[in-house]
Amino acid sequence: MAKDTKERILAAALDMFSQNGYAGTNIRELAAAVGLVKSSMYKHFESKEEIWNVLLDQMIAYYGERFGSAERLPPIPDTLEELVTMTMGMVSFTVHDENVVKTRKLLTIEQFRDDRARALATKHFLTGLTDIFAPIFSGMMDKGLLRRDDPAMLAFAYTAPISALIHLCDREPEKETEAIGRIEAFSRHFIAVYGEKKGSEGP
Amino acid sequence: MAKDTKERILAAALDMFSQNGYAGTNIRELAAAVGLVKSSMYKHFESKEEIWNVLLDQMIAYYGERFGSAERLPPIPDTLEELVTMTMGMVSFTVHDENVVKTRKLLTIEQFRDDRARALATKHFLTGLTDIFAPIFSGMMDKGLLRRDDPAMLAFAYTAPISALIHLCDREPEKETEAIGRIEAFSRHFIAVYGEKKGSEGP
DNA sequence: TATTATAGTGAACGGACGGTCACGTGTCAA
DNA sequence: TTGACACGTGACCGTCCGTTCACTATAATA
Question: pTM of the predicted model, to two decimals?
Answer without folding.
Answer: 0.95
